[in-house]
Amino acid sequence: MAATGSAVGLGNIWKFPYITGENGGGAFVLIYLLCIFLMGVPIMMAEVMLGRRGRRNPVDSMRYLAEEMGHSQLWRFLGWLGVVAGFFILSYYSVIAGWAISYVFSTGAGTFAGADAELVGQHFDELTKSPLTLIFWHSIFMVITMIVVARGIEDGIEKAVRFLIPALFILMIVMVLYAMTTSGFADGLRFMFAPDFSKITTEGVLKAMGQAFFTLSIGMGAIMVYGAYLPKETSIAQTSFTIAIADTSVAVLAGVAIFPIVFSNGLEAGSGPGLIFVTLPLAFGNMAFGTFFGTLFFILLVFAAWSSSISLIEPAVAWLIENKNFSRIKASITLGLLTWVVGLGTVFSFNEWSYIALFDNTPLQGKTFFDVLDYLTSNIMLPLGGVLMAIFAGWLMKRTACEEELAINETAYLLWHFLVRYVTPVAVMLVFLNAIGVFS
After folding, report:
1. 440 part of a folded domain
2. CB atoms within 10 A of CB 278
3. pTM for the model
4. E strands, 261-385, where?
């Protein structure tokens, strides 16, 4: 449940619908699903396996495993890649989660009752254009995240996710039932599930792969840490498939709930990061008991983001505890403050720095600080971390060690080994090379 909580979060409900809208709908969804099950699940199995075999934080797990398998100590930098990626993602994730906290109160106050698309859009614009407001909510979210991290795994994370994830599923189903009553339901389904490959680009394939890694929390050290905590008797394959199915289901349900509302109200499917904060308040504002359900939904969205944010910072916290003799509380406060400071760059990306574009004449041209962090982590750091894990697990781990940890039948093992050894590294590297401009 903790690992599912790590995977299910803003990446499914906030990010998946808006990047699907930006990349043409059905074809993007199909490529995303293929990426999940042909690359995401095999790499997740590899990452959980490496974590459980190492029983340490990602950096020290990779150092220990490299030593055990007789390979270079430089593999510890793979652990560092995940730790740094998680840190950067949390810095902007916290800001977006702050929007969700703000919407708990806005919805609860009846702000969106009977509102039209213009009013809802105006509310979102006013929120994002106020740096002080965004800093306030960003600060609140970072504080509640670090409180749970400071309490540890059993007393903090496990207790938090036990009821949050099932409740989120129930609310998503309620939203889909509402979407079925809208005039745009058929258009929404067509947009989601009727592939038009003329709308997909190489960048769209890259984003689908990046989203698969982002939403499954692969390559950022979180799954490796949870692997380190995983009991020996627990099936890695079953755990990985369960997480992937739960995670993908939430993403698809979010799309099925949101796009009918988009088309019913004449909104733009590719309207970017604010999509969920415009469509859902519009739906809640015009449905029976909408204020109640809307408030409850955004509370659960905050909790889903919360369970994911915990996992993003846990690898770095574990490293400080195990290597620098920090107490868990001191490590949590130190890293929380650092993340908060970096998060200010994302806050200003939506207002004061929104006209500042970085890195001209590169693939990052025209992107704000937030866009750069999102691009680097989702499209480069996570896929790179994933492909290196696949290479280590598929080529450098001894078969006896893999079979001992995975404990699956011969056919399943050979399939996993083939995917993680050949399919995943080649596919990820092609898209990664495109991301850094090799083919341009």
Report:
1. no
2. 23
3. 0.85
4. none
